[in-house]
Amino acid sequence: AVLLMALCSSFMLQTAYGAGECGKTPINTVALSLSPCIGAANNAKASVPPACCTQVKKVLKMPTCMCAVFLSPIAKQARINPAVAISI
């Protein structure tokens, strides 16, 4: 029960302060920051640029943010393949 209350409190605090899946940063902003990854996110055989690795490391600190980015309208417009992108 204590764990459940702690989780609920954490969720309520995030909601109260306007934090979403990516904290206070809009999902589209995070998605755009991953633009160096476009080639590698669409082609499993493409090399992954160092700039992509840097951004992915930042976003992976919040796994729910990465999921939200994969499901975002920007990712869909860019035709990102989540199965390939997750392998970066």
UniProtKB/TrEMBL annotation:
Residues 1-18 form the signal peptide. It comes from the Eukaryota. The keyword Metal-binding does not apply. Transmembrane segments: none annotated. One of its GO terms (molecular function) is fatty acid binding. Keywords: Signal. The keyword Repeat does not apply. Residues 9-87 form the Bifunctional inhibitor/plant lipid transfer protein/seed storage helical domain. It holds the Pfam family LTP_2. GO terms for biological process: systemic acquired resistance. PANTHER family: BIFUNCTIONAL INHIBITOR_LIPID-TRANSFER PROTEIN_SEED STORAGE 2S ALBUMIN SUPERFAMILY PROTEIN, LIPID BINDING PROTEIN-RELATED. This is Bifunctional inhibitor/plant lipid transfer protein/seed storage helical domain-containing protein.
